[in-house]
Amino acid sequence: MHNKSTPVKLAILKSGLAIFGLCSLGIGIAAAGPMYVESVPAPISKVMPELQKALGQHHFKVVLHLNILKMIKAKQHVLHIPNLNKPGFSDVQSIVFCNPFFFNQLLNAHWKSAAACPLTLTVYGRGEKSYIVYPERVAITGSTPAINVAQKIDKAVIGALTSVPGAQPMR
Questions:
Q1: CA 163, 114, 96: angle at the middle one, nearest 5?
Q2: Residue 149 confidence (pLDDT)
Q3: Domains and CATH numbers, the chain
Q4: In angstroms, what CA-CA distances link 107 with 51, 110, 149?
């Protein structure tokens, strides 16, 4: 006898695995090295449109926008993640973005370093304050021939982030 809830359970499992995979990607990149962090005295709902606009003005194309915390909370009844969101963020969203010229430069300089693309960043919101975290790509390329390209990428991304109204680098 076939259980009618099996396709639903499979869909939930696949969604959970996708969320886990995306979070693991972020954790893997985060573990790779330094983070550039900015604080913005505005709620995430105001920061995200300004951030996407800034990236566009600096020749980056946003290809994916994920509301990570919302997605995980929606599946929490199935996932049962212990201590979910212990820091108490009201919202956590990620952006995946790229610039095909930078990707090509990485590919040509050291093809393995092209794995530094696509670019990612995560925005953490807590009330009227948001934090933008960008894993710097120089940590990924290391001392390969692509280090100069990674430095250009980081400079361009940080330039975009500093143009977000109210953004201040955190040290």
A1: 45
A2: 97
A3: 6-170 (3.30.310.70)
A4: 27, 6, 10
